Amino acid sequence: xxxxxxxxxxxxxxxxxxxxxxxxxxxxxxxxxxxxxxxxxxxxxxxxxxxxxxxxxxxxxxxxxxxxxxxxxxxxxxxxxxxxxxxxxxxxxxxxxxxxxxxxxxxxxxxxxxxxxxxxxxxxxxxxxxxxxxxxxxxxxxxxxx
Length: 146
Hints:
By secondary structure, the protein is an alpha+beta fold. Helices cover about 15% and strands about 30% of the residues. The longest helix is centred in the first third of the chain and has 10 residues, at about 40-45. About 30% of the residues are buried.
């Protein structure tokens, strides 16, 4: 867990701002009922943490999917990830569409490609729009999809 060493082995909510170029101001957290804020999406992402990412073997590659997180991106400022303990890197996140907040645009990046069998562990760090963060670590076997 080199990339998340600052958090130790803690998995859960953290109030430290760790994502590069961290915004200094939180978004207004007034619930809208449209899942546009951290207040609205954090409980859902906490309950579905095991679905944040997925690994699929396809066409001779490992595909690392972020589709679930992208569906709840309106309450996030950013997503960072590390594969096999490497340094954290930003995942390209589509802008929030307040008229269709859970819809992932067809042109959005939803997965990244890696050599077949190369992904063993994935660390994920979320920066919510209230400036809170949450981190989780995943083993390949636990996030494989057919």
